[in-house]
Design brief:
Length: about 210
């Protein structure tokens, strides 16, 4: 049975809590996890890249010189691909990079990501700040030895003080439990999660 230490914001251990084996105890499916990462990264691409072909470039309506007798190679237009200012052959065109994955695969990928990162979970009893100051969050990270570590912070519900205290720290990403995704989980070195958020994740994925 998988257990993890429950800590307070000072880094002191309170107790050991048991993790749901249906979520954290499964064997990660690397193939589905890989496909989910590719899907997530592909969805971030805008696909607005574009180039003009020789038919779209302005000019070049007249044949530059006659076909024979000049000593030059035959040319039909100064906007052909070999000319400076000409069109682009086989250039990129706007397209949709999004991929599809069925619901069961998405769920399995998320469970696989959670299970594969279980050793990187740091569970807090609660995360609340009296003031919206960055030093509040920095003090918590220092106590948990998470300074200069890419940390994904997961809370049950976003609080304005937490948002303001963490948004200026470059290596910290704050999300709600319902927003967890494969890409953020895999990219994080450590995952700081509150007890309430952990329960919400287990409830959804079990």
């Amino acid at each position: 049975m998988t257990k993890v230490a429950l800590l307070n914001t000072k880094g002191e251990k309170i107790e050991d809590i048991k993790l749901n084996e249906e979520v954290f105890g499964i064997e990660p499916n690397n193939k589905v996890l890989y496909d989910a990462i590719i899907l997530s990264r592909a969805s971030l691409r805008q696909g607005t890249h574009s180039t003009k072909t020789r038919s779209e470039v302005s000019g070049g309506g007249r044949k530059p010189w006659r076909q024979k007798g000049t000593g030059h190679a035959r040319q039909g237009s100064i906007r052909a691909v070999q000319w400076r200012g000409g069109g682009i052959a086989f250039g990129p065109v706007p397209r949709d990079y999004s991929k599809k994955m069925n619901r069961k695969e998405r769920r399995l990928a998320l469970k696989s990501a959670v299970a594969s990162k279980v050793q990187d979970f740091v569970v807090l009893d609660e995360l609340k700040f009296a003031t919206p100051k960055t030093k509040e969050m920095v003090n918590v990270l220092n106590s948990l030895k998470l300074t200069d570590v890419n940390t994904l912070v997961i809370v049950k519900e976003l609080d304005e003080n937490i948002i303001l205290a963490s948004r200026n720290i470059p290596n910290v990403l704050l999300i709600e439990a319902q927003e967890i995704n494969v890409l953020d989980l895999v990219a994080a070195n450590k995952i700081l999660v509150t007890k309430e958020a952990l329960s919400a994740i287990e409830e959804v994925l079990k």
